[in-house]
């Protein structure tokens, strides 16, 4: 059996799919043959394209539940089906809890947890009526698996998102598969805002066992796999795409020679961007 990811004839929606991580996901699904609708609040300067094909952009505010329902009904009416939903839209500013108002934290939780739930419910209404069902992919974060100072509400929402995906995978089986990609640091067009110049980005990359940040295309390839028949028995899973995680701080604090591995400064807190 050839291990080829083929999404020809399938229709995919990527929320926040016009820039950063989302653009990488959109391009990978296009490259695998899918028709892709990328939705976001603001039109992109350039719509993602790959393999000689271009994604379709439709404006959508995911915080408007009525608009979300209308969007997915439009997809069904115009394309006749929906096979893949990637819940990528999200993000947060860097803000310590003591400097935050409850309303600010609530908006972060809404964007990163409630809107994926809203979109998934609307997508299910389409997928459940199809003999082939569908695949829903949540874009999670390592911020939901460890302390996340400065982005605590975001981390809590991402932890909730992974739990939500596992419950959906049970409730909506066998027709709909639901999985999470748990991302570490990804290099996007906004990375310089978080890490400074090329030297700063390289220094942050060296704190990761694979010695670099991920590329959006690599996230997209993992999404294409989970959306494809190659992952036909994968549901309720959380796939770590984080380059090996974070080197334990005690290894760098010790004065002993450990015989190898990356050293350097402690891992900086990564401000989560609006790309995911």
TrEMBL record:
Domain of life the protein comes from: Bacteria
Gene Ontology MF term list: oxidoreductase activity
InterPro entries assigned to the protein according to its UniProt record, in alphabetical order: KR_dom, NAD(P)-bd_dom_sf, Sc_DH/Rdtase_CS, SDR_fam
Residue ranges of the region described as Disordered: 250-276
Keyword Oxidoreductase part of the UniProt annotation: yes
Keywords: Oxidoreductase
PROSITE patterns documented for this protein: ADH_SHORT (PS00061)
Pfam families associated with the record: adh_short_C2
Sequence ranges assigned to domain Ketoreductase in this UniProt record: 10-189
Record's keyword annotation contains Ribonucleoprotein: no
Biased composition (Low complexity): 266-276
Alphabetized SMART domains for the sequence: PKS_KR
Protein family per UniProt: Belongs to the short-chain dehydrogenases/reductases (SDR) family.
Protein name stated in the entry: SDR family oxidoreductase
